[in-house]
Amino acid sequence: MARVMGKTRISVSAFMGAGAGRLELELVAGAQGLDRPIDESAVNRPGLALTGFYDYFAHRRVQILGNAEMAYLTALPEKERTVRLDRIFAAGIPCLIVTRRLRIFPELIRLADRYRVPVMRTPWITKHFINAATIALENLMAPRMSVQGTMVEILGLGVLLEGRPGVGKSEAALELVRMGHSLVSDDVTVVRLDSSGALIGTSSGVTRFHMEIRGLGIIHVPSLFGIASVRSEKKLDLMITLTRQDQLANDNRSGRDNRCRILLGQSIPYMELPVAPGRKVADLIETAALDQLLKRM
Predict the structure, then answer these.
(1) Per-residue burial over 120-155, b = 16 or more CB atoms within 10 Å of its CB, e = otherwise
(2) What backbone phi and psi angles, to 5 degrees, belong to 292?
(3) SS3 for 18?
(4) Strand 144-148 relative to strand 210-213: parallel, antiparallel, unpaired?
(5) How far is CA 123 from CA 21, 79, 97, 103, 234, in A?
């Protein structure tokens, strides 16, 4: 079962929450506007707009003020600087970020509170921040869907295990982790489409690095098997549906029908794997991953 979420429209609060640690974002003013929407994943340096040219001002993007923009504003008289900044804020920008932890003008803070536009500061160098912020925004806004299934990394391949409740997905994944492979997500996997066209699987924040095993309850995987036993995310390369032998829709003994599944417009190799008493399902999944690697060669 899958639920398509589509392209995500995020708020400044969501961006700040996702990037506050890694991007070292510090909120300086405009806290009342944290619910403002961000519609585009690209960011903008409003140099031309600060000079008075607004014809192509990308006002729907996160605005970045670096050394050049702040030096230009410093050279202006305070009254003129206020007028230029006022035009920027009045355009309806989602938020504004000052890099290199540069000094923020008092008038900029007043305007941020007046227009309810969040202003943040970061110690990052401008070009590095732009690259990292763009990646963070693309990840947050990427089309995504949730899939009922458990995902593991086997020999560098991301393998998503599907099947009816009770068929043994989590137990098979636990055995694969014990064999030296890594858990990505248990029970529900969130899949997003990145800018390169790859499908990236990850877990929801609540269940990350945990598994629910019948009879054992919820376990914390890295505490039992070490930090190498988990991955925060992985490219999806293969989907396997675990099906009880008597419920197989297609009695394909060779497994060479080259089937695929379409997720978010992308084709993913797919196979059904019969589950029956006495079958070592984890070994079969590992072999299927090895076979997929061989097919790529």
Answers:
(1) bbbebebeebbeebeebbebbbbbbbebebbbbbbe
(2) -65, -40
(3) helix
(4) unpaired
(5) 12, 28, 11, 11, 30
Could you identify the residue written with the tokens 């943040």? 120
DSSP-derived secondary structure for 155-173: TTEEEEEEESTTSSHHHHH
The rounded distance, in Å, linking the Cα atoms of 192 and 237 is 13
From residue 116, alpha-carbon distances to 27, 31, 110, 141 in Å are: 13, 7, 10, 23
Tokens 């043994």: give the residue.
168
Q: What is the largest CA-CA distance in the chain?
A: 81
Alpha-carbon distances of 221 from 66, 170, 212, 231, rounded to whole Å: 43, 12, 10, 11
Q: What is the pLDDT of residues 90-131, one digit of tens each?
A: 999 999 999 999 999 999 999 999 999 999 999 999 999 999
164-185: burial string, b at 16+ Cβ within 10 Å, e else:
eeebbbbbbbbbbbeeebbbbb
pLDDT single digits (tens) 146-199: 999 999 999 999 999 999 988 999 999 999 999 999 999 999 999 999 878 899
| Nearest partner of 269 among 242, 288, 244, 247, judged by Cα | 288
| Phi, psi angles (nearest 5°) of residue 287 | -65, -40
Q: For residue range 12-41, what is the model confidence (pLDDT) as tens digits?
A: 999 998 876 789 999 999 999 999 999 998
- Collapsing DSSP to helix, strand or coil, 22 comes out as coil
Q: Are the beta carbons of 185 and 201 closer than 8 angstroms?
A: yes
Whole-angstrom distance, CA of residue 190 vs CA of residue 201: 6
**C-alpha neighbours within 13 Å on the C-beta side of residue 239:** 23
